[in-house]
């Protein structure tokens, strides 16, 4: 068992229907694929009232396993092209991956 890998897990949380754009940007910068999950936001300041009903914003959650040597480029590209520096546009973060099993890389 390997205690350190050459990978990072990248997470991107954006408004619904924006996740595929994050995946495309990541692939343009070397990512091989991603998992896209639908979710709901829970930030109180983002919720809106519509016809006396609380409406929670729908989100796309993108999860990618990428090599350390391309992770920064992918994060920077997504951050810049998706305007994540603007309020309520989304968030991107990464976590180190300690172990990977079942990953078959194709050359």
TrEMBL record:
The GO terms this record gives for MF are: enzyme regulator activity
Give the SUPFAM superfamilies listed for this entry.
GlnB-like
InterPro entries xref list: N-reg_PII, N-reg_PII-like_a/b, N-reg_PII/ATP_PRibTrfase_C
Which biological process, per GO, is one annotated for this protein? regulation of nitrogen utilization
Q: What is this protein called?
A: Transcriptional regulator
């Amino acid at each position: 068992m390997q205690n350190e890998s050459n990978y990072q897990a990248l997470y991107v949380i954006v408004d619904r229907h924006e996740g595929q754009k994050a995946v495309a940007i990541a692939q343009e910068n070397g990512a091989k694929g991603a998992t896209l999950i639908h979710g709901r936001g829970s930030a109180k300041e983002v919720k809106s009232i519509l016809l006396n009903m609380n409406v929670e914003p729908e989100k796309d959650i993108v999860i990618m396993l990428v090599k350390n040597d391309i992770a920064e480029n992918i994060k920077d590209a997504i951050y810049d092209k998706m305007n994540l520096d603007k309020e309520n546009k989304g968030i991107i973060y990464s976590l180190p991956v300690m172990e990977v099993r079942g990953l078959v890389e194709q050359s």
